[in-house]
Structures are given as C-alpha cells and as structure tokens.
Amino acid sequence: MAAKLYEKMNQYLANQEVNYIKLHNLHWYVKGRSFFTLHAKLEELYDQTADIIDDVAERLLALEQAPVANLKDALAMATVKELDSAPVPSEDVAQKLVTDTEYWIRDTQEIIELADESGDNTTADQFSDYLGEYQKLLWMLKSYLA
C-alpha cells in the first residue's frame, strides 16, 4: 500500500515541477485587460508551487524515498503538460487556471486517500492543507470569471 502512495507522491512532485514552469510561462506570456491582476497572481502561484515542491520532496526523503529531482525524469513521469512559449489571452489564462486547479484538487484527494489507507497521517495532513488551498483558489478563480 505504501509503495503506491510513494509512487503517486513522486508523480505529484513531477507534475508540480512541470506546473512551476507552466505558471512562469503564463506569467510571462499573459496578454490583455487583466494582465496586471493575473501577472501578480501567477507570481504568487508559482511561489506557492515552489514551496509545495520542496515540501513534497522533503516528505519523500523523510519516508526514505528518492524524490524526482531532474527535469528529464519529471517530464517522463508527469501527466501535466507544458505550454508553448506564446502569448495567452488573459481570459484563457484564467480558464486554464480553473482547469488546472480542478486537476490539483482531484490529484491531491487521491494522495490523501492513499495516505489514509497506508496509515500515514502526517502525509494525509500535509496534503489536506494543499487541498484546502486549492479549493479556496478554485472558488476565487470562478468568482473572478463570473
């Protein structure tokens, strides 16, 4: 049971590493009326993602596991896809963030369930914190788009 949890955590880490670059891409290439708002929010999001990357890698190490720590392996393992280096209209950026946040909610919930099944309350608590943040972000993004 724990092996499945560790595998999923490493894939989550790989996805966060790709997401970190994806958020920078959107930060640099957002265009349109909402540029200033989204540019600032995207910086906040990639800073939070950097913290998640570090926390998940350190949790894996605490569990005596080897976190994915290079882009080649992260890209091979990740299910999150990169974006082209091209301008993105601000309306599309906000919608991409909604779609991605919905993904993170599902993925985070899966790890919480695996951690619970493995009796790993510490990991479940860590990911429960992420889940709360993603749920709040989703509410804010949907309110922004309304």
Give structural attributes.
mainly alpha, globular
Describe the structure.
- The protein is mainly alpha-helical and 146 residues long.
- Helix content is 80%, strand content 3%.
- The chain has 5 helices and 2 strands.
- It has helices at 2-29, 35-62, 71-77, 90-118, 121-145; strands spanning 30-31, 88-89.
- It has a two-stranded parallel sheet with strand order 1-2.
- Helix 1 (2-29) runs antiparallel to helix 4 and helix 4 packs antiparallel against helix 5.
- The longest helix has 29 residues, at 90-118.
- The radius of gyration is 16 Å and the shape is globular.
Main pleated sheet: 2 strands, parallel
Radius of gyration: 16 Å
- The strand line-up of the biggest sheet is 1-2
Mean pLDDT rating:
97
Please indicate the percent range of residues in DSSP E strands (runs of 2 or more). under 5%
Into which percent range does the helicity of residues fall?
over 70%
Which structural class do you get from the secondary structure elements?
mainly alpha
Number of helices: 5
Number of strands: 2
User: How far is the N terminus from the C terminus?
Assistant: 42 Å
Low-confidence segments, given as residue ranges, are none
Tell me the overall shape.
globular
